[in-house]
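Support request, please re-run this one:
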Amino acid sequence: MVANLTANVIGAFLAGDMIGVGTQLCMVTADANSDNAGIATLSIEAPLRTSPADLSAITVTKPTATFKLKDDNQAAWRVQPVLYSLALTCEEVFV
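Re-run finished. Output below.
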C-alpha cells in the first residue's frame, strides 16, 4: 500500500503499528519511513478488502474496528486462589 501522508504524520512506521484504512484495522508488518513529500510504502496485514479511493484518510492515531464475540460461550471466568482471569475470543465484523 502506498500512502501519501500529510505533514503532521510524516515520519516512521514500525512493524506492529496499527493503522485504520476505511473501516478496516491493519497492522504494519515492516518498518517504513516517509519521505519529505509524505510518500511511504507500507507493508500491511490483513489484506485490504476494498481498494480505498485516492487521497482517502488513513487513521494513525487510535485506529478502531468493530469486533463481536465469536460465540455465546465467552464469559467463563477461571478462578484460582487469589488470581482471576478472563479470556475472550473475538472476530472482526466486516462493515
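The radius of gyration is 18 Å. Residues 31 and 67 are 27 Å apart (CA to CA).
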